[in-house]
Structures are given as structure tokens and as C-alpha cells.
Amino acid sequence: MNKKKYFAILCLLLTGYSAIAQSTRKLTDSVSILLRHVYVFPEKAEGMSNLIQKKQKAGKYEQFGKPGDLATMLTSDLRSVYADRHLLVRYDPQLEKRISIFSQTRKQDTTSIRREQRQNFFFRKAEILPGNIGYIDFSNFPDTNALSRQTVRATFTFVAHTDALIIDLRANFGGSTAMASEILSYFFPSKTYLGRQYNRIENSWKDEWIVNEPSVTGGLSLSMPVYFLTSRHTFSAAEGFAYTLQQLKKARIIGQPTAGGAHATRSFALGQGYVAFIPFTRSENAASHTDWEGNGVIPDDTSSDTKALVSAKEIIYRQFLHTTTDSTEIRKFTWLLNDLRTALPVSEKDLPMYCGSFEEFTFFVKEGQLCGTADRKDQPYTLAYLGNNLFRGSQWLVEFIKDQSGNFSMIKLYWPDGWVDTIKRSANPEKS
């Protein structure tokens, strides 16, 4: 290779290296400026800024060939100073473009509304569980607009006449704090003081109140007991929703401690396709005088993710039993509690003593399990043993009752509505 060609290649390499250095310096300078002016903890912002500036000057960020890798490293470095899970640098040119357009026009992105609408604004399930318990499962808080409010109102109207409400936040990762406040307002019939919030951008504290606005809720006010299901994935606005109602003694939380992200963020376009999410607020709850940052929302009753719903049902049914004196209601909720019980092992040699006919109900052993039919023409079903001679059938629970001779001469059928049938063993049972 001749000297001129070698020199030309060297110049190209140096020019490319210089361009990369300028690019990373511009990015780190932008992040540093934002942190110093926006981040909720000024002293932490200073430490973060100093760290990334030091690493930039040492050329540590110029080794990353992919923009996404550089964004990941910047995020990791910032969180090494303070582990704020809301603090994030991301390489996302499309998002950066949308943020830039919004900053210039202040118009909401209609494509975002359509995208959320196709996901039913993140509401995945609303149903009435046995015992007149409402159940709502949603995975995010959508942006506030006419369509999302319509979906929220319809969902909570559907469960408005239940005796208890379970809200499943185990897979809810947060979202719009404005929508979280609007949903909170369904549970407050009158204006209520929540606490105060510090805004770093404005450098001021502001009292926070919740108001049930008829234009938002349609005047709907919910007063039934509320139970939240949480997990370690529950994050941000979802945590705030549960935390607020828990601290004001309006809800009971069942599950696992949440992720611990309490700071609201604002997104900033950094240029070159990069976006920064910078937390700029923190709250002081009126009851706790703090928030859930770092610690998460601590459940009132600990349960695994997979068992949280069953645990909530059990807590509600026991509460209903504790407060009712109606004999039918007592039988109904006793049935519901028994129906939640986990099946127990039963020895195959003990099964024949349950076999026989009790009017139209016939019980027999098949492939090592107790089975039954309510009519000889029906498809057989398998019974699950719950202990103390109690089995779960297809639509009912059956208890086998012994006589003075120690034989099972009678059964009691417990139905979900609280009705109980007592049936004697048939004198001449048909062979199974």
C-alpha cells in the first residue's frame, strides 16, 4: 500500500472516530443537562451527570457499535448512582419523532389512541365471580381521552352492584398517571385530600386532591370493599393506585410486594434517535408521609402470584360469613369456601365404601377414582376429595354421612345458592 492511500484511509478512520466522539459527547451532554434541570433528586442528578461525563471523556461510550447498546449502558450507569427504575435512555427513532412533533404542536398522537383502542385500552377482563364479587383485570393505564374514559366507565359500571371488588394488577406495568387519578375518583364520593407532590421542574410542592367529576365518572361512586392483587411486576401508576387506596383504608392488598417505582416521568427527545425518560416528581401520602419508591407497596396478605386470586376469594368469603346471620347465606359462603379447597389424596382401597345409589345419584370407582352420575344416561364425572368425607362434584359438593353402624347411608348435596339436599341410600341400588 502506498503512503498516499494509507494516509487517506487513516484520515477516514480518524474522521469516523471523531464523528462518533462528537455524537456520544452530544448525547451525554444532553442527558447531563436534563438530569441537572429535571431529575427529582438534585444531588443524585449531579452524581449521575459527573459519572457519564467522566466515562465519555475517557472514551468508554465510543466502543458501542449499536445505538441500542449505548442506550442500555447509559441507563445502567445512571442507575448505578441511584436505582430509579423509571430513569431510562432508549434508542427509538420513531418515538423520538413523535415526542418532537408533540413538543412543537402539543397535539396528541392519534395513532397512539388507535393502538390503545385495538387493545381495549388494556382492559382484559371484567366479570362477576361466585358470591357476587366483581373482578377486573387490566395491564396498563391508558391515556385520557373520550374513548378510553368510555371503556373505563363501562367496566366499572358493570361491577357497580357487586358486594366486593377484586382489581388484578399482577401484570399491570403502569401508564398514565392522569388516568390512574381518574379511576381513583370512582372510589371517592367527595373531594378528598391525598397528600402533596414535589415537582422538580417547577421547584414547588402542590397539594393533591381527588375529586369525582361527573363528566368523567358519570356520577358513578363505588363503595364496596376493594381488594388488589399485586406482584413484583406491578409498577408505577399501578402501584400508586393500590398504595393510595391502601393508605386511606379503602382497600386490602393481597400478593407480593410491588416493584417500587414511585416517580412520574417526562420523556425528552435527545436527537440522533435517542429518548430519555426522566423522573421529575415525588409524592408524600397524607397518611404515610412518604411513597413507595424503592420499597414497593407492601401487601396486607402475602400470597404467591398463582394463588393470589384464590386467597382473595377466601378472605372475602370468610368476611361475608363473619358479617351475615342469614342461614342460607352462611351455607352459600361455606360452600364457596369448600369449593376453593385443594383436592386431597384418598386411598383407592377406601373408595368402594362410597359407592352406591342415592336416588338418581350413583357413585362408582373407575380407574382408581371415585366417579358419579346424576342420571344413568349422563356422562360420568370425577369427584375430588376435600377431606372429612366431602367431595367436589360437577356442580355441587357431596358429603357422605355415616349411620350408627358406620355405613354411609345418606348423602348431603350442597348447592352454590345455599340449598342443601339430604338423600338416603337407595334400598336396592343398581349395579354400577
TrEMBL record:
Q: Does the keyword Hydrolase apply?
A: yes
Q: What is its EC number?
A: 3.4.-.-
Provide the alphabetized UniProt keywords: Hydrolase, Signal
- As given in the record, the signal peptide range reads 1-21
Domain Tail specific protease: start-end pairs:
105-304
Recorded GO MF terms: hydrolase activity
- What is any Pfam family matched here? Peptidase_S41
CDD domains xrefs: Peptidase_S41_IRBP
Identify the InterPro entries for this entry.
Answer: ClpP/crotonase-like_dom_sf, Tail-specific_protease
Q: What is this protein called?
A: S41 family peptidase
Species in which this protein is naturally found: Pedobacter vanadiisoli
